[in-house]
Amino acid sequence: SGAHSSTVAIQATNDDAAASKLSCVKKGYIKDDYVHFFVRRPVRRSPIINRGYFARWAVLRRLLLQFLEPKCYSSESIHMKKQILSLGAGFDTTYFQLVEEGITPYLYVELDFKEVTSKKTALIEHHAQLKEKLGAEATICKEKGEVLGDHYKLLPVDLRDIGQLDSVMALAQLDSSLPTFIIAECVLIYLDPNSTCSIVRWASKAFSTAIFFVYEQIHPDDPFGEQMMKNLESRGCPLLSLHATPTLLAKEKLFLDQGWQRAVAWDMLKVYNEFIETQEKRRIERLELFDEFEEWYMMQEHYCVAYAINDANGIFIDFGFS
Ligand code: SAM
């Protein structure tokens, strides 16, 4: 059916993301000793794509580390437990990296379609370097596409079904009062606008101390944006939510309308220029010959980071871009 083929196509965008991250690793843009387990056919991406993925990786990483840092919190809650919830996590490897770095959060939960979590479950089971990071008590069920470890849960869910999100809260033992970092990296954009709103509202109700991080496209209406939309449509995965949230202001409004206290959206050009660390930029800008500046600016203007904050206890006052 059409619905089925578009689901398959959207899942394929995950293979693309993993392959692109591996391309960045091989060129020295980012360090990730785990993503290669998830890529069957490595590809070499162009310098501009590598730089774009580097920026995407660097901004999420910097905000995540801010969130995990103890000093972000008042002195009496320095050892506060923290949760990360990744929606449409695909083959993301952040959990394994955090364990390696000795900053495992109290709970890390990943959700995706069962087809994707099943593949991820099988690969985790198969590779000791992944499996050993789950802890001794973990249960791994390939048939269900499910991993239940002490600090890590991987669960199959269709994000469009809010009832399933409630069940996942219980099954994963997510605590609605703990500081929670929600990640939606290139995910909401593929959902219909109603589902996107429902998820954003659900998350706001579910977590009183939380950050909702989004990385995705903007500006579908200029020539570059139209081309971007067409490319994905021709692959069978239209950006269904983009016309409902086409601008930075619209992304902020999405969160504020659905109950979040604060929201900030920047395009990736601004993020790259003003938030990614200068030293890091200097390092990666030497890695490959690069002369597509016009295209780089254009591309970065068509991606954004938005984050929304619920801050019941005033612990996120210093969090964010500025
Ligand atoms: N977040 C990962 C990253 O940035 O590397 C993967 C991004 S990939 C472009 C989009 C992911 O969202 C895919 O893994 C896809 O299966 C998942 N996804 C899309 N719609 C979904 C839905 N309704 N329920 C669960 N997962 C979904």
TrEMBL record:
<dbReference type="GO" id="GO:0005737">
    <property type="term" value="C:cytoplasm"/>
</dbReference>
<dbReference type="InterPro" id="IPR016651">
    <property type="entry name" value="LCMT1"/>
</dbReference>
<protein>
    <recommendedName>
        <fullName>Leucine carboxyl methyltransferase 1 homolog</fullName>
        <ecNumber>2.1.1.233</ecNumber>
    </recommendedName>
</protein>
<keyword id="KW-0489">Methyltransferase</keyword>
<dbReference type="Pfam" id="PF04072">
    <property type="entry name" value="LCM"/>
</dbReference>
<dbReference type="GO" id="GO:0009966">
    <property type="term" value="P:regulation of signal transduction"/>
</dbReference>
<feature type="binding site">
    <location>
        <position position="56"/>
    </location>
    <ligand>
        <name>S-adenosyl-L-methionine</name>
    </ligand>
</feature>
<keyword id="KW-0808">Transferase</keyword>
<dbReference type="InterPro" id="IPR007213">
    <property type="entry name" value="Ppm1/Ppm2/Tcmp"/>
</dbReference>
<dbReference type="GO" id="GO:0032259">
    <property type="term" value="P:methylation"/>
</dbReference>
<feature type="binding site">
    <location>
        <position position="185"/>
    </location>
    <ligand>
        <name>S-adenosyl-L-methionine</name>
    </ligand>
</feature>
<comment type="function">
    <text>Involved in brassinosteroid (BR) signaling.</text>
</comment>
<keyword id="KW-0949">S-adenosyl-L-methionine</keyword>
<dbReference type="GO" id="GO:0016020">
    <property type="term" value="C:membrane"/>
</dbReference>
<feature type="binding site">
    <location>
        <position position="88"/>
    </location>
    <ligand>
        <name>S-adenosyl-L-methionine</name>
    </ligand>
</feature>
<comment type="similarity">
    <text>Belongs to the methyltransferase superfamily. LCMT family.</text>
</comment>
<keyword id="KW-0472">Membrane</keyword>
<dbReference type="InterPro" id="IPR029063">
    <property type="entry name" value="SAM-dependent_MTases_sf"/>
</dbReference>
<dbReference type="GO" id="GO:0018423">
    <property type="term" value="F:protein C-terminal leucine carboxyl O-methyltransferase activity"/>
</dbReference>
<feature type="binding site">
    <location>
        <begin position="158"/>
        <end position="159"/>
    </location>
    <ligand>
        <name>S-adenosyl-L-methionine</name>
    </ligand>
</feature>
<keyword id="KW-0963">Cytoplasm</keyword>
